[in-house]
Amino acid sequence: MDLIKKTAYIALHVIELLVLGFSLIIYTSLNKQLPWYESCGTQFLAIFMLSIPSLIFIGIGFIILNKKYELKKLNIKIPFYSAIGLGLPILIDGGLSKITITIGTFLCVMSILVTIAIMLVHFGIVNLKSVNK
């Protein structure tokens, strides 16, 4: 694998993980037991102002990287799916109910786990073929 591809691939995934971690902190910020508790709810605007545009730019970066190097389709689609998954619960239920927060938190955690799994499989740290045997 080319050094430029590795560097760009890792940088895009690290930025994606940071954005998803930031979104997870925002989704859990209405939990009173956590130190970053904020009761007003305006912090959810950061998902629309920072997280979703960042994930869209990361997805565009993967599309550009795919033009020269062959990436798997899941690598390209995950940032877009994550952006939709982060914004939809808030758009559907603007009241920020506990169900909305739970769904958003679950989607953040799943997006983080899928991104980490994609990186591990891509670099050969985890071999899915040996797991299936």
UniProtKB/TrEMBL annotation:
<protein>
    <submittedName>
        <fullName>Uncharacterized protein</fullName>
    </submittedName>
</protein>
<feature type="transmembrane region" description="Helical">
    <location>
        <begin position="7"/>
        <end position="30"/>
    </location>
</feature>
<feature type="transmembrane region" description="Helical">
    <location>
        <begin position="42"/>
        <end position="66"/>
    </location>
</feature>
<feature type="transmembrane region" description="Helical">
    <location>
        <begin position="78"/>
        <end position="97"/>
    </location>
</feature>
<keyword id="KW-1133">Transmembrane helix</keyword>
<keyword id="KW-0812">Transmembrane</keyword>
<feature type="transmembrane region" description="Helical">
    <location>
        <begin position="103"/>
        <end position="128"/>
    </location>
</feature>
<keyword id="KW-0472">Membrane</keyword>
